[in-house]
């Protein structure tokens, strides 16, 4: 349960009473590489708090996988629209390496909120963090060039650049693998000068 508390720290400090109401609703799950946490076309009514490993969200466009986001330790994964409006997910989330997560279903979270309004505040802050991350990614594509997106990730999320394979990273940045290789090589050579 210590890891659930660590996962929640970025968005809430809950009292002991609130944690006591909340903890029984979490289910600890292990996912193998390639296992789906969220399936496209099916409603997503759960939040997944990552303890170990990472996953990626993608959808299929013109027959190709397009990476939409990556989620790492101590982040929460869900499809926000599907979660809020009970609609089918428009993307799949798949484990990129073995993962250990804590899942809480929406109905159980709502039950815990009835016991402690403090949980409601924490939940809303968590959903705001998820929305902010999605908005940041949209802004990356609207404002920055491919080189600018890569440089932004270098400064704000270097772990992503180290852990994600280049082909998936290229898809995420909206460029071909060869283009990303050129950007990386130019960045490396400019740093050594």
From TrEMBL:
Domain spans labelled Cyclic nucleotide-binding: 10-119
Family matches, as InterPro entries: cNMP-bd_dom (IPR000595), cNMP-bd_dom_sf (IPR018490), RmlC-like_jellyroll (IPR014710)
Domain of life: Bacteria
Name of the molecule in the record: CRP-like cAMP-binding protein
